[in-house]
Amino acid sequence: MKPRFSRRLTRQTLSLLACLVIAIAGAVSAHAAEATIAVAANFASTADKLAKAFKAESGETVVIANGSTGQIYAQIQQGAPFDAFLAADQARPALLQKDGTAARAPFTYATGRLALWSPDPATIPEDGAAFLSLAELERISIANPKLAPYGVAAKESLTALGLWQTYEKRIVMGQNIAQAFQIVAAGGAPAGFVALSQLLAAPDSLRGSHWPVPANLHTPIRQDAVLLKRGANNPAAEGFLAFLTSPAGCATIREAGYQPPDACK
Questions:
Q1: Distance CA 226, CA 208 (A)
Q2: DSSP result, 181-194
Q3: The CATH number of the domain where 203 resides is what?
Q4: Is 144 strand, coil or helix?
Q5: 149: domain range?
Q6: Which residues contact 188 (CB under 8 A, 6 or more apart)?
Q7: What's residue 29's pLDDT?
Q8: In the chain, % of residues over pLDDT 70
Q9: Does residue 176 contact residue 148 with C-beta atoms inside 8 Å?
Q10: Which of 26, 27, 39, 212 is the most buried (most CB within 10 A)?
């Protein structure tokens, strides 16, 4: 005959084990890493997708804060609590490395594409350069070249075509590429220079017509990422940057209309 206390002991043991499992799970959850990543406006929707995929894979949370590259750079200099920065250029991350704000050297995570776009399917023909030379657009939207690399690319493209002076006084300027897109979408200008990635992410009703701007008309829009000192030793920040060059990250970046980093090849 088995001792009567055996079953009671077994139940007590199982109860203790259950409590232990719950405690461990709670501790893991409580210590799950979280990072705040500052992201250039043109890459915001893609960054959101990457953040969701990263959390599904790692369990770690990434909060995306977006704006123009120039504005974010100024915020970082003023002590904004960002762990990493995905810029729309190479210049600002390089400056952050130079002044000691970065925890390590920047790397290129994507190369952007510029497009001339209109929500009207009949506005932009296949030969966008010839269309622009006719100077029929009364207004055109671009991002601020002083703040946004896509604005620099738009200005360089118009200059290369010999049309900057023609359109300079017709510009409706957004502070970043997201605002340039919104201006056109809201009817503030019939067309504008936007990121190709924005068009791919837009609903069908806004696809309209567009002309992919030849890459030889402007400086390549290489976008660099950099880990900031605040994010050093933060598993979520470091893990998310590493995720950008993972197979899943590379596929998402490519599908969004960017050329993925060399590390993806």
A1: 35
A2: HHHHHTTSSS-EEE
A3: 3.40.190.10
A4: coil
A5: 114-212
A6: 139, 141, 172
A7: 39
A8: 88
A9: yes
A10: 39
Does residue 15 sit within a domain? no
204 and 181, same structural domain? yes
Q: Could you give the number of structural domains in the chain?
A: 2
In a domain, 155, yes or no: yes
Q: Which residues contact 172 (CB under 8 A, 6 or more apart)?
A: 139, 140, 141, 183, 188, 189, 192
Place of tokens 């201006």: 183
Q: Is the pLDDT of residue 21 over 80?
A: no
User: CA triplet 64, 86, 248: central angle to 5 degrees?
Assistant: 80
Distance CA 116, CA 25 (A): 51
Q: Record the tokens describing residue 153, joined without a space.
A: 């690319």
**How high is the pLDDT of residue 263?**
81
Say if residue 67 is in the same domain as residue 186: no
Are 62 and 240 within 8 A, CB to CB?
yes
**Mean of the pLDDT values across residues 100-105?**
96
Confidence of residue 32 (pLDDT cuts 50, 70, 90): low
Polymer length of the chain: 265
The pLDDT of residue 189 is: 97
